[in-house]
Design goal:
It is built from nine helices and five strands, in the order βββββααααααααα. By secondary structure, the chain is an alpha+beta fold. About 7% of the residues have low confidence.
């Protein structure tokens, strides 16, 4: 519902920050609210709107990648918003993704509320999913984000249209080495998929 909220931090607690934007204060739960000091600074927070029968909350993150990791953690059985925030509180989403990819249960069980069974479930549910989610960013290195190519943007568009990663991966090699716009890549990919 909300992609991000840009405003001024007016209050920080151990669980959340309040961001004021045009006279409205948004209470946003964060992995580590104290990392958003000092109060009164202007910032952009990427948000996730969480709705349940008994709760409607906004969760906030410094980057879209943190938010994506949080959303994927919520899909793991046994992980709720509180557990997802605890995992992200280290401020090292890259380290968490490495642990999942390397099946490092010992690292994952260090987080509060994460036992061996839940750590194993996180690995089973999320291993191998980060390469497609974070294609346009070099999260596994210390470098700056790398802009997505037209082919990568087309891949994301095809996923948004409902095509599986397997279907997309199958036809992408046939589109490489072409100098097309993302829109042209999508059209070419759709033609190839319809032929198969």
């Amino acid at each position: 519902m909300f992609e991000f909220i840009r405003g001024k931090i007016v209050h920080v607690t151990s669980e959340a920050v309040t961001i004021e934007n045009q006279g409205v204060g948004y209470l946003i739960y964060c992995p580590n609210p104290f990392s958003f000091h000092p109060v009164e600074q202007e910032l952009t927070m990427y948000t996730y709107h969480y709705v349940r029968e008994d709760a409607i909350h906004l969760y906030g993150f410094k980057t879209r990648e943190e938010r994506s990791l949080f959303k994927h953690l919520l899909n793991v059985s046994g992980i709720g918003p509180k557990g997802g925030l605890a995992i992200l509180a280290t401020g090292e989403p890259q380290r968490v993704m490495h642990a999942i990819e390397d099946e490092d249960e010992a690292f994952l069980v260090k987080f509060p509320g994460i036992g061996k069974k839940t750590a194993r479930q996180i690995i089973l549910d999320l291993k191998g999913k980060f390469s497609s989610i974070f294609m346009e960013y070099s999260l596994f290195s210390e470098s700056e984000p790398v802009p997505a190519t037209g082919l990568e943007e087309a891949s994301h568009a095809l996923q948004a249209l409902g095509y599986s990663e397997r279907e997309i991966t199958k036809i992408m090699p046939r589109l490489e080495n072409q100098d097309l716009t993302p829109e042209q890549y999508v059209k070419a990919a759709l033609k190839l998929m319809l032929k198969n």
